[in-house]
Amino acid sequence: MTASSIQSTQFRRAAWGVWIALTLVVCIVAVTGKERSVTPSYRSAVGNWFAGYPIYNMAGSDFIYFPQAALVFAPWGLLPVPVGEVLWRETILGILAAGVYRFTRLASADDRWFLINTFASAGTAAGCARNGQSTLIVTGLMLLAVVDLHDRRWWRATLLLSLAFAFKPIAIVLILLVAAIYLQMLWRLTIGLLIVAVLPFLTQSPDYVISQFQACYENSHTAFQVGISGHWAQLFGMLKVVGLEVPSSAQQFIRITVAGATLMICWIAVRRLSPARGLFFLYAFATSYLMLFNSRTEGSTYAMIGPVYGLLLAEAWLGQHSQMRTTGYLLAVIGTVFNFDLALLVVKRPDEIWLCPFICIVVTIDLIRRLIREISYVQVTPRTMELSSTASKLNSG
Q1: Residue 183, class by beta-carbon neighbours within 10 Å (0-12 exposed, 13-18 middle, 19+ buried)?
Q2: What DSSP state is assigned to residue 246?
Q3: For 306, phi and psi rounded to 5 degrees?
């Protein structure tokens, strides 16, 4: 074993050590019950589902997901509370860590990249992990699915994305982009989502399931209105902080317009760049859209884009050796991790939600600029090589 491989192994072990340490801390916090947790809402939905009681409070709060979310959480929700709390956090952090590891490997086999991305991803995920939010398992499943798309493992990617959607409907952004860009995935994802839709009917009576789907629709509408009117860490919430109130109709128009632009950008990235690089941009733009335009984005939700920030930081530090870019992405990670505390230095509650979307906007603009540059390089390089070859032939002639 060479010295470089030994060093790489040490970096990899250090990264896994960070994930293990974070898991131990959040499990201790969960058992002591000293931190706010969302798992009681999940657990209540599981119990009410199998008892045949309503799972929604119709106020747009607590359990606001599809009925399938109660079913996929059941393996943890039916356990005794302390055991379920610990195993749930071990699961969501384990799947997230595996996703970050494989996602980072698409960019580099140098385990220093994995260590850097671990600090960024674990840091941005800490709040979600303490609260037990399923956002982390959704993020991990999406990252693993992106890697499977690269490896052309279509059915496994379908399984992972469908399962992510069952946990939380926010996975639909990446699912729609993948279905539109990869024709091999369109019919597979259709089958996967149909299975997810049918799943509740296998566990309860049809009348009860239909009633809960109706309640889900009404409760989701209320939750969306709460998202529009409240203070949330997304684009329109940030604009509200500076006194710009965007009407709900205009918000919807902007969401649809930017969704179309996001699809176009991701299509170009996947078609023009290498498979690994195209998929990096696909995940990056999917999550940035979700962070900025989901009506109920929280500061902790930015854990989903944490692996993007971490990979950009590793690339700037180790790949490009750019001090300015390294500093910029390091500040993006720090700002996202400590977003509420830093924002409160400038504003008062409840306006402290502005920092995460502001950072996300800056990073997204940089990603667009970088994508344009990389596509231009890919187009120019083959042409340059062709001209050089032609010149060589003329000179030899």
Answers
A1: exposed
A2: -
A3: -55, -45
CB distance 68 to 171 below 8 Å? no
The pair of structure tokens assigned to 3 is 């010295």
pTM, 2 dp: 0.93
How many CB atoms lie under 10 A from the CB of residue 318? 14
* Closest to 105 measured CA to CA, from 12, 5, 181: 12
Q: How far apart are CA 290 and CA 301, in angstroms?
A: 9
Per residue of the chain (397 residues), give pLDDT as tens.
Answer: 566 666 788 999 999 999 999 999 999 998 887 667 899 999 999 999 999 999 999 888 789 999 999 999 999 999 999 999 999 999 999 999 999 999 999 999 999 999 999 999 999 999 999 999 999 999 999 999 999 999 999 999 999 999 999 999 999 999 999 999 999 999 999 999 999 999 999 999 999 999 999 999 999 888 887 777 778 999 999 999 999 999 989 999 999 999 999 999 999 999 999 999 999 999 999 999 999 999 899 999 999 999 999 999 999 999 999 999 999 999 999 999 999 999 999 999 888 999 999 999 999 999 999 999 999 987 665 444 443 444 344 344 4
Domain parsing of the chain, residue ranges? 3-211+223-380
CA distances from 278 to 106, 120, 195, 287 (A): 11, 22, 29, 14
Q: Please list, residue by residue across 198-235, b when 16 or more beta carbons sit within 10 angstroms of its beta carbon and e when fewer do.
A: ebbeeebeeebbeebeebbeebbebbbebbbeebbbbb
Q: What are phi and psi of 301, to 5 degrees?
A: -65, -20
For residues 373 and 276, what is the distance between their CA atoms, to the nearest angstrom? Answer: 17
Contacts of 278 (CB under 8 A, 6+ apart): 269, 270, 271, 272
The DSSP code sequence of 278-324 is: HHHHHHHHHHHHHHHH-TT--GGGGGGTHHHHHHHHHIIIIIS--HH
Question: What six digits make up the tokens of 287?
Answer: 């999550």
Whether 102 contacts 153, CB under 8 Å? no
